[in-house]
Amino acid sequence: xxxxxxxxxxxxxxxxxxxxxxxxxxxxxxxxxxxxxxxxxxxxxxxxxxxxxxxxxxxxxxxxxxxxxxxxxxxxxxxxxxxxxxxxxxxx
Length: 92
Prior knowledge:
mainly alpha
């Protein structure tokens, strides 16, 4: 029984954060800073040109892209990663 409760709690965490929060985070982190070239665009350009070598730049690429990667994961696995026993299919 305890194992089942742990499994259900783990599945609940897979559905966090909410889709709306992920979208807000993707927009804010993806386009920050808003005044000059966004860091995400700069880091992707550096990656494509083979210039992404400093650990700080690699971390920055990950930091500004994680919400988009999480959204992509949810879109690719809608009923696997976020299915919760006892609830209808999909996220609640």
